[in-house]
C-alpha cells in the first residue's frame, strides 16, 4: 500500500498566517488551507502562538516548514521586514520548536517561493542557475543551482538610479504611481538586465500576483532576457508549498 508523505507548510505574512499539509511527492496541497490574521504588533511569541493555532487546526504532529519575511542564518533571524524589529537576533528555530513541540524548519519567504517553483513549478528539472523573483509590495529573490538553494539574497535592495530596485520596479510601485504597463515593463527590463549582468542565470521566473495570466499578457512580451524567462506556476500558495518542501529536504540531509 502506498502512503503519501505530507509536511505542514505555514506562511507568515504581514497580514495573515496561513498553512496547509503538502504532499511532498507532487507539491499538491491535500486539504483546504487555513488562515488566521497576523497579530497586530507581530511580536515573536504572539506569532508563534498563532502558528501553533494553525498547526492545531490540522491536529498536526509531524514535520513543519515555516516561512518568515526575514533573513535567517543558522536558525537566527538577522532582519525584519513587515514584522516587529524584536525578531532580529531571535532564534526562530528554537522558538517555534518549543511552542509547537515539533520538528521545525524555518526559511525566508522568497526562498520558500523559490523552493516551490524549482521543485514543482516552472523551474522543475531546470539545470544551472535559476533565479526566482517575486514582484509584490517589494521584490523578493531566491537563487538555486541545480535545485540547491543559495539562501538569503536581497536583490530587491540593489541600488538603481539613486534608489532601490524594488522602489523602482515592484508591482506596488506600478499600482501606486498609476504606471502604464509599458512604463513599468521598461523599469522591470532595466532591473532584469542588471540582474543578468551580475548573476548570469539560465532561467528567470517571475512570481507574485503579477505572474497570473491575466496580468502577464500586458507586459511579458515586452521583456527581453538572455536567460529563459517564465511566469511562476504558483502564486498565493507558493510559500506554503515551498516551506513544506524545504522542511522535507532539510530532514533528508
Explain what this protein looks like in three dimensions:
- The radius of gyration is 18 Å and the shape is globular.
- It contains eight helices and 15 strands.
- With 253 residues, it is an alpha/beta fold.
- The strands form four sheets. Strands 1, 2, 3, 4, 5 and 8 form a six-stranded mixed sheet that branches. A five-stranded mixed sheet has the order 11-10-9-14-15.
- It has helices spanning 44-57, 92-100, 109-119, 165-169, 171-176, 181-199, 213-219, 238-252; strands spanning 6-12, 16-23, 28-29, 34-37, 64-68, 72-73, 76-77, 104-108, 129-135, 139-145, 148-150, 159-160, 163-164, 203-207, 228-231.
- Helix content is 34%, strand content 26%.
- Strand 14 (203-207), helix 7 and strand 15 form a beta-alpha-beta unit.
- It starts with 5 loop residues before the first strand and ends with a helix.
- Helix 1 (44-57) crosses helix 2 (92-100) and helix 3 (109-119) crosses helix 8.
- The longest helix is centred in the last third of the chain and has 19 residues, at 181-199.
List the helices and strands and how they pair.
Layout: E1 6-12, E2 16-23, E3 28-29, E4 34-37, H1 44-57, E5 64-68, E6 72-73, E7 76-77, H2 92-100, E8 104-108, H3 109-119, E9 129-135, E10 139-145, E11 148-150, E12 159-160, E13 163-164, H4 165-169, H5 171-176, H6 181-199, E14 203-207, H7 213-219, E15 228-231, H8 238-252
Parallel strand pairs: 1-5, 5-8, 9-14, 14-15
Antiparallel strand pairs: 1-2, 2-3, 2-4, 6-7, 9-10, 10-11, 12-13
